[in-house]
Amino acid sequence: KDMVTPAQAKALKKEGYKLIGSHSAVKLCRWTKHQLRGRGGCYKHTFYGITSYQCMEATPSLACANKCVFCWRHHKNPVGTSWKWKADDPEAIVAEAVDLHVAMIKECRGVPGVVDWRWRDAHTVRHCALSLVGEPIMYPRINELLGELHGRRISTFLVTNAQFPEAIRTLRPVTQLYVSVDAPNEADLVEVDRPLFGDAWDRLRASLVLLREKRQRTVARLTLVKGHNERDVAGYAGLVALGEPTLVEVKGVTFCGKSDASDLTMENCPWHHEVVAFCEALAAALAANHPGAPEYRIACSHKHSVSVLLARVDQLATLDDSGAVVSWNTWIDYDKFHDLERAHAATGAPFGVEDYAVPAPPWALFGAAEDGFDPVDTRVYKKKANGKSR
């Protein structure tokens, strides 16, 4: 049967989603449009060096096993705990996703501020954020879909809600694998994620344990919601120590407007300095309470999206003799990744985090005057109703 009902399809299309087949979708990210206009890139540009205007946001599964309070899709997508729908062909999904994405790029021509050479380059997709909506690894042919993307030399940033550990276990290498860590303890997880699985906490912990087995880049992704999940720093430290991810992304929740699906308000949105303080406390808790865990330090910051990046010192830092960081190698050599991934697919040749890491530029680093804003672009300020900016 089809995953999406006619009513759900209508609601998703109204919000700008382009539906593909019976269970996939693509949508033009606002950061893609921002960078097309020379107004700055997303946090992935700052942290990892993607080209935001060449990034496609997509999903092969509109369905999800959670109904998170901070979901910006307002729960207009289906839910489920197992795949019970027909599975479309992965080659066809990727081909149509790219075609639809490029068609949306073409529509941007003539929009005030669009940089012509960026618009032309944007017709070539170089990155795919598999994070649009739903749970991508629910799709039973996810490994084939990843192979199709890599075959086109499109990098893969795959986000999972940590409810399908077995799918994580069997996942082929991706450019960067995210596990959403939405709460530090079981009670907060149930409150924030509103999971369908009764054993959601055990599934999260099992997913983090499996991250240790991945040789490529892994990320624990934390979304802080004031008043809901930000107080138990020690609990988060325990989960990070469990997974030992390459990176820990901490983001303040984004307010997406009122809806019947959530009662969040602007009061639940942390300020950037509060996210920085949380990251400092998290790094300290890891060092104090988990001496066997890797050392993490703050590497990068993207103030515009209230995002801060902690990175493993042993994998991504170049240190001087005193132990001070000389460079943070959080950026990715994407061509190198594709060459390594292709060799791995053909011969099983192993490759790891350090093999495709390159230094981040000074403006991307925590403490830089630019606050993570690429200086080649132009900062545009919109007047806030209260005169403040986060």
CATH topology: TIM Barrel
Task: Characterize the overall form.
Answer: globular
Main sheet: strands, sense, barrel: 10 strands, mixed
- CA(first)-CA(last) distance: 45 Å
- The CATH superfamily is identified as Aldolase class I
Low-confidence stretches: none
Helix content: 25-40%
Q: In DSSP terms, counting alpha (H) and pi (I) runs of 4 or more, how many helices?
A: 13
How many structural units, i.e. domains? 1
Strand order of the largest sheet: 1-2-3-4-5-6-7-8-10-9
Percent of residues in beta strands: 15-25%
Radius of gyration: 20 Å
Q: How many strands in all?
A: 14
CATH architecture: Alpha-Beta Barrel
CATH class identity? Alpha Beta
The overall pLDDT, averaged over residues, is 94
**SSE string:** HEEHHEHHEHEHEHHEHEHEEHEEEHE
Structural class: alpha/beta
Brief write-up:
Keywords: 4Fe-4S, Iron, Iron-sulfur, Lyase, Metal-binding, S-adenosyl-L-methionine, tRNA processing. The protein has 390 residues and is α/β, with parallel strands linked by helices.
Question: What's the arrangement of secondary structure elements?
Answer:
Elements (H helix, E strand, L loop, with lengths): L5 H9 L3 E3 L3 E4 L2 H7 L6 H6 L6 E5 L30 H17 L9 H6 L5 E4 L11 H10 L3 E6 L4 H5 L6 E5 L5 H8 L6 H12 L5 E8 L8 H11 L3 E6 L19 H18 L6 E7 L4 E6 H4 E3 L5 E4 L2 E2 L1 H14 L9 E2 L32
Parallel strand pairs: 3-4, 4-5, 5-6, 6-7, 7-8
Antiparallel strand pairs: 1-2, 2-3, 8-10, 9-10, 11-12, 13-14
